[in-house]
Structures are given as C-alpha cells and as structure tokens.
Design a protein that fits this description.
Blueprint (H helix, E strand, L loop, with lengths): L12 E5 L10 H9 L2 E5 L5 H14 L5 E4 L17 H22 L5 E5 L27 H21 L4 E6 L17 H8 L3 H13 L9 E3 L2 E2 L8 H16 L4
Parallel strand pairs: 1-2, 3-4, 4-5, 5-6
Antiparallel strand pairs: 6-7
Helix pairs in contact: 3-4, 3-7, 4-7
Keywords: Oxidoreductase
GO molecular function, one term: oxidoreductase activity
InterPro entries: NAD(P)-bd_dom_sf, Sc_DH/Rdtase_CS, SDR_fam
Length: 263
Amino acid sequence: MRNPHQNLNGFLDIKIHNPSAPFPSDDSLLQEGLSSQQLRVYTADLSDFTNLQVSLDQIKKHEDHIDLLFNNAGVSFGELSYSKQGREMHFEVNSVVPYVILMEMKELLEKGSLKTVINTSSNALLYLKQFDYHTLASPTVFKKLVGPYAASKLALSLWTQEIATAIQKDGIMIRSVCPGANKTTITKNAGMPRLMIPIRNLFFSHPSQGASRLYEAALGSSQQSTGVFLNKGKATPLKFSSQGSELLSTIELIYKQEFAAIS
C-alpha cells in the first residue's frame, strides 16, 4: 500500500489544518516535510467563513497550482451544535465547506497536472432510511453516527455526483470516497455510539489504511471515473439522488451569498 505521507512524484503537500490539533512530533516524515517546506500548512477554523477565507486567500497568494485536492477535514459530535453562520455543524463543515474550498481552489486546480478532487465521505450514508436536504441546516432530531453526520456525508457525495459533469468541462475530475473504519479522532470522540467503542478498539484499522484508500481513489483504477462514490474501492449507488440537483443549488447559493460576498 502507498505510504500516505510519501510525496507523489515530488508534488508539494499543502494542508489546511486545525491549529488546535498540532502535527505529531514523533512523525519524522511530517516533521521533515515541514522543515523542507515540501509540506506547507495553512491554519483555519473551517466553521468560520471569515477565518476560512483568510486562509484560502493565503493559498491563492502563495501557491501557483494544485494537482490533487483532498477535502479530508470533517467533524462528528455527540450533540447538535452550530457554526458561526448559524447552520448545524456537521452540514457546515462536512458538506458546505468542501464545496467552498473547491470553488475557491478551482482556478489553481485548472493549472495543475492531475486536476483531481477527492472528497472524504463515509459509508454511514448507506444506513440512512430517510433524507431531506431541507432539514440539513437545522435538524430537529439527533442520532449519533447515523443522524446529522451520515446525512452530511450523503449531502457531500450527492453534490459531488451532481457537479461532476460541469467541472469535467474544465478538466477536473471529482470523486467521494469512504476511507473505511479507522482509528481516528472522529471514531473515538463523543460522536460515536457508546456500543461502537469496543468494536472500534478491536477491529478498526490504523489511519494509514484509510489514507491509502484516499490515495488509491485519486491515483488508482478509478482515475477516469468522475462523480462516483467509492466504497471499498467500488463505485456504489447513492440513495436519494433525486435531491442532488436542488441540494447542490442550495449549497451554491450559500457560497455565493455568504462566502463569496465577504469583502
């Protein structure tokens, strides 16, 4: 399997990073990348549009192209919480912000070589029995894992599927990917159902397994596929696809009216 920290043919790694979660000091590859500037870090609060815009503007100022964009940041909470813009946090960070980042980085992607976007989704979306995009910003019911979290990941995969044809005209390929069950911060925090914790500790994989799936989705056998949701390496149909167009329009409107309008 590919080492998730290994440079891809010398490509530069650029990460938008949460400043409250520093890189591990014992990871020699990460520390070496930071020292050599092959890894450049831009910090941002993804739930705050004003803060996020500052970081994205810095990327546009200092970088001249992007080959691969991994929208990997995400949240999972044990209760409903809301962003500074007033929307439920799972929807804001897991669904809306990846769209914002794509739109803001699109020009740099068009100048890159691979021109590929990988959105980190979750197979939790497969367990949703109902879905209404109108309720994503202000849900009235909360369930761990298969509630707002799963709905936000389905929303991410739905707009990924919906936007694919349009951005392919600009040479950009996009896919959403489930990295599998991994021992990450998200799978051990309050957003995980209590009964799942022992299963997580016994059977979930090291995060490098999930990272490898993301890299495989970008550089492996699915390179010519766009708009697909990859689960265990295979294109998997999405439920509630009939809502994809209106969902994308809703997120696009949020971007235009709230983010792009920030001066």
